[in-house]
Design the sequence.
């Protein structure tokens, strides 16, 4: 019987050169991770002297029913940085299995002034009755500033609610209002679109809205109840993507109470959303995909064969040598600038002025300052191809070694 393949990278015939194997690798990694979390929690509870009162007085034989749910994270590593600066507003990716479906989850909605029109919208009869009881507090930005100035009041507000939503038009004002009490926790406010959709006429042009009353210049329009409910449900059912200037992204994809199949489906949805919307050049820029718990090692479910994005990123031996020579000449030129300045001043017979020094430096360094052209003959192209093949072989050997270690870890967990 032929041995089962353990390759983590799968080529496709058309389209993107990479894809995620949902049926085997993702599901196996999800099952192994969930089993390890359950085993770790049972071992921790057995080692401690305390015992859960819920388990002690429960007739249920299910061990996972009253176990503490831990978050599962998807960690995606890229070959190049994704963005140049930190973004305050997170991206949103729809999930097949949402994270916040519990009817007991409480929501605090921070709106623009005045807050009364938002409260009236939620209290409207057409607003869904399944969502309205979950919104336990609606507060405007001005009252938020006036009532919650101290750290104690902000911490109390933080502990009273599970999810904090904020109007996308005022989300940039909240870091100064709420401070590190909120923005150093997972409960940082999530932007939601409460603005009415822009209407279009029969020809497809946008209809210009009438200007607001001059007596209330700060009053911002609120969407109809059905649209507000739709945007709130869409926001709380999505996975949030916070982009930073790095080559690593962490996205929460579900709790440990999910099944392995649910985790695997959420992994596939999040990876597809990241590669399509947020990562430049898509799969070509992805280096690795892992899943992990808060206190576990990261299990690999996908590894790239190549460490470069474009073929031009790989330098041959001649190009590396030329680059080192160029760097060495620039360093030597910078190091010997003091002696050159002295020689230039001697030639000028005194001070000579800064312009004379710059003119002489440009004259002497003219030959070295030119950009060296890339050699395009057949011999250099052949050497570059050999170099790339050598790098691929090294990468393939390293990947096989990592796969063997990963399989050993999974067997140990199982």
Sequence:
């Amino acid at each position: 019987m032929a041995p089962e393949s353990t390759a983590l990278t799968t080529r496709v015939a058309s389209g993107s050169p990479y894809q995620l194997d949902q049926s085997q690798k993702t599901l196996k990694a999800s099952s192994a991770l969930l089993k390890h979390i359950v085993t770790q929690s049972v071992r921790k509870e057995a080692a401690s002297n305390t015992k859960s009162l819920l388990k002690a007085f429960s007739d249920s034989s299910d061990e996972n029913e009253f176990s503490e749910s831990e978050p599962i994270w998807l960690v995606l590593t890229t070959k190049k940085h994704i963005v140049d600066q930190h973004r305050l507003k997170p991206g949103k990716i729809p999930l097949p299995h949402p994270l916040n479906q519990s009817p007991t989850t409480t929501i605090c909605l921070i709106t623009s002034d005045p807050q009364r029109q938002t409260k009236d919208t939620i209290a409207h009869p057409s607003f869904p009755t399944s969502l309205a009881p979950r919104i336990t507090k609606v507060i405007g930005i001005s009252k938020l500033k006036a009532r919650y100035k101290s750290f104690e009041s902000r911490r109390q507000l933080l502990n009273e609610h599970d999810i904090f939503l904020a109007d996308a038009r005022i989300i940039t004002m909240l870091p100064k209002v709420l401070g590190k009490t909120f923005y150093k926790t997972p409960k940082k406010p999530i932007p939601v679109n409460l603005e009415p959709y822009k209407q279009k006429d029969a020809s497809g042009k946008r209809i210009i809205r009438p200007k607001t009353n001059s007596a209330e210049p700060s009053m911002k329009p609120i969407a109809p109840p059905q649209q507000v409910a739709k945007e709130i449900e869409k926001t709380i059912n999505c996975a949030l993507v916070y982009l930073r200037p790095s080559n690593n992204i962490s996205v929460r994809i579900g709790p440990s109470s999910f099944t392995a199949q649910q985790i695997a489906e959420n992994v596939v949805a999040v990876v597809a959303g990241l590669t399509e919307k947020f990562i430049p050049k898509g799969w070509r820029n992805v280096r690795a995909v892992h899943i992990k718990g808060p206190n576990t090692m990261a299990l690999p479910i996908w590894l790239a064969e190549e460490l470069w994005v474009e073929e031009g990123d790989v330098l041959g031996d001649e190009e590396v040598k030329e680059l080192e020579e160029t760097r060495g000449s620039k360093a030597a030129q910078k190091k010997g600038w003091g002696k050159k300045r002295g020689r230039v001043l001697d030639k000028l017979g005194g001070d000579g002025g800064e312009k004379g020094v710059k003119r002489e430096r440009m004259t002497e360094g003219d030959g070295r300052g030119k950009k060296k052209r890339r050699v395009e003959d057949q011999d250099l192209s052949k050497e570059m191809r050999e170099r790339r093949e050598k790098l691929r072989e090294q990468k393939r050997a390293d990947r096989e070694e990592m796969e063997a270690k990963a399989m050993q870890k999974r067997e140990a967990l199982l």
Remarks:
- The CA atoms of residues 102 and 227 lie 21 Å apart.
- The beta strands are 71-78, 91-94, 107-111, 135-140, 163-167, 190-192, 238-241, 248-255, 286-292, 299-303.
- Residues 1-17, 53-67, 351-375 have pLDDT under 50 and may be disordered.
- The longest helix spans residues 378-413.
